């Protein structure tokens, strides 16, 4: 009998692993619909979809290992990071999905709301929140929508040696800002950005990538805390936010 492994579980979604099969249970069937459609459209390696019976989506395990983990140095080679960059470039150059993405107004409203919560609940020093809110402003500008993964965490990209073998968890895929994907993949691993861009290309705005890291860390913290995760683990969101206080210009 195969052992059932709980990969992640919270009130919105649970992912179980049974052998080489992942079972994703989601209270919102729209997430599974987007995931299936996005994987069919994406010009990058994705896991095989075995079946989909809402609220459950069954997919095969991606071969290889994740590019890295938050809070730990990435053991992947520079060439593997470059291969990930090339894969992301092909995604961003693919036709844009036909469903809507988040607007600039949506992002701005969420940032304002989550910063208010952080201030009110005093989970971080006021100056840390204020400094990162200033940095995040750089990302709040019009962008040309491209096909983005939308949740391109380092654990969602799998490699075998120097090759990308699979990109998982596509439920947030949508039209969006290319710099957002690059920021999320290097969140907590900023030292790997040059290797990533060796494959992606250098026509990027590093200040916007940096801004998205602060913005994502600010808006994600409330959700993580409420769903039993700890953004204060080494290398995670709070560390990203605190690190901005060591930069030139920080007060």
Overall description:
With 251 residues, the protein is α+β, with helices and mostly antiparallel strands. It has a single domain, classed as Alpha-Beta Complex (Aminoglycoside 3'-phosphotransferase, Chain: A, domain 2). Helix content is 40%, strand content 18%. It contains 8 helices and 10 strands. It has a 5-stranded antiparallel beta sheet, with helices on one face. Strands 6-8-9 form a 3-stranded antiparallel beta sheet, with helices on one face. The chain has a two-stranded antiparallel ribbon with strand order 7-10. The N and C termini lie far apart (58 Å). This is Aminoglycoside phosphotransferase family protein. InterPro entries: AGP_Transferase, Aminoglycoside_PTrfase, Kinase-like_dom_sf. Keywords: Transferase. GO terms for molecular function: transferase activity.
Number of domains: 1
**What's the pLDDT, averaged over the residues?**
94
Distance between the termini: 58 Å
Reading off the top of the CATH hierarchy, the class is best stated as: Alpha Beta
Order of neighbouring strands in the sheet with most strands? 1-2-3-5-4
């Amino acid at each position: 009998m195969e052992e059932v492994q709980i990969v992640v579980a919270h009130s919105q979604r649970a992912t179980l692993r049974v052998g080489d099969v992942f079972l994703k249970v989601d209270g919102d069937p729209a997430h599974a619909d987007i995931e299936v459609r996005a994987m069919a459209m994406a010009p990058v390696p994705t896991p095989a979809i075995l079946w989909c019976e809402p609220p459950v989506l069954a997919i095969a395990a991606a071969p290889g290992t994740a590019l890295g983990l938050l809070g730990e140095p990435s053991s992947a080679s520079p060439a593997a990071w470059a291969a990930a960059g090339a894969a992301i470039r092909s995604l961003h150059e693919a036709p844009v999905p036909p469903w809507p993405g988040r607007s600039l107004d949506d992002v701005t409203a969420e940032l304002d709301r989550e910063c208010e919560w952080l201030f009110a609940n005093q989970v971080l020093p006021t100056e840390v929140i204020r400094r990162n809110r200033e940095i995040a402003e750089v990302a709040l500008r019009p962008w040309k929508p491209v096909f983005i993964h939308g949740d391109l965490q380092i654990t969602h990209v799998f490699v075998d040696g120097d090759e990308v073998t699979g990109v998982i968890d596509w439920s947030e895929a949508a039209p969006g800002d290319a710099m957002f994907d690059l920021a999320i993949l290097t969140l907590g691993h900023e030292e790997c950005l040059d290797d990533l861009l060796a494959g992606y290309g250098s026509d990027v705005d590093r200040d916007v990538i940096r801004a998205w890291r602060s913005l994502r860390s600010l808006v994600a913290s409330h959700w993580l805390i409420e769903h039993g995760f700890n953004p204060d683990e080494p290398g995670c969101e709070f560390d990203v936010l605190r690190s901005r206080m060591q930069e030139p210009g920080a007060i």
